[in-house]
Amino acid sequence: xxxxxxxxxxxxxxxxxxxxxxxxxxxxxxxxxxxxxxxxxxxxxxxxxxxxxxxxxxxxxxxxxxxxxxxxxxxxxxxxxxxxxxxxxxxxxxxxxxxxxxxxxxxxxxxxxxxxxxxxxxxxxxxxxxx
Length: 131
Prior knowledge:
Blueprint: E1 17-21, H1 25-37, E2 41-45, H2 48-56, E3 63-67, H3 75-86, E4 93-97, H4 101-106, E5 111-114, H5 119-129
Parallel strand pairs: 1-2, 1-3, 3-4, 4-5
Helix pairs in contact: 2-3
């Protein structure tokens, strides 16, 4: 083929932008690797305030993974701000926690992902929420 540009195979969706909001670098890097290996783009923020700034600057993730406990603004506060600002346009949000799933569910996330997570758990969530 002479055309060197990428064209998805018929029936395959183009890569999606997935945001990771996580203050622990090794966790963010592991999650980003899984998402990128699945063919998607990743945008990382180290706290909720940075995520909001990136979205305000024009980033349009179609799925957000966020930690619950972070400095400056945690996942629960991030979810409340996004739902208030974006309403029905808020992308699905998966809250990651090493702690209490009840607290995580009270944050109004669409899903919870327990840490440590497996590759298969993340792949299942990507399959469920991305086109």
